[in-house]
Automatic annotation (TrEMBL):
Highest classification ranks of the organism: Bacteria, Bacillati, Actinomycetota, Actinomycetes, Streptosporangiales
Stretches assigned to the Pyridoxamine 5'-phosphate oxidase N-terminal domain: 8-124
Keywords for the protein's UniProt record, in alphabetical order: Oxidoreductase
Record has Translocase as a keyword: no
Protein name: Pyridoxamine 5'-phosphate oxidase family protein
Length: 128
């Protein structure tokens, strides 16, 4: 999905510093919703969330991947990205995600068990 086509306001909204929520499905269907920091690469249509490999969100995505929703809100402005998340554990993939996170938020604290949830965006909802 080419997210550049979503326009300048959308691009700016996903570059501003906002916390997001990540929604995954627990076994049996109830949602697991947690606050996260996220980055979005408009050109590739990939969002990234860094987390500990032992976190519930990482375990729910697991090796097979999972459908997820990533949402951010600022007053009346909001945007939800839906897609399929996969777990990335490679050192280069984690370092790239950490650099992206640092550019949007601040440098993340050291975490030797860090992994990346890489979300290929398939649908965009919202009013920006």
């Amino acid at each position: 999905m080419d997210l550049v086509e979503q326009g300048d306001a959308f691009a700016a909204f996903w570059q501003e510093r906002h916390l997001c929520t990540l929604s995954t499905a627990r076994p049996g269907g109830p949602p697991h919703v947690v606050p996260v920091g996220a980055t979005l690469d408009l050109r590739t249509g990939v969002a990234r969330v860094i987390t500990s490999g032992a976190s519930v969100k990482a375990r729910l995505v697991g090796e097979e991947g999972a459908s997820v929703s990533l949402c951010q809100v600022d007053g009346r402005r909001w945007s939800t990205l839906e897609g399929r998340a996969v777990l990335r554990t490679g050192a280069e993939e984690v370092a790239d995600a950490e650099r992206r996170y640092a550019a949007r938020y601040k440098p993340p604290r050291p975490n030797p068990s860090r992994v990346v949830l890489e979300i290929k965006v398939t649908r965009v909802l919202g009013n920006v």
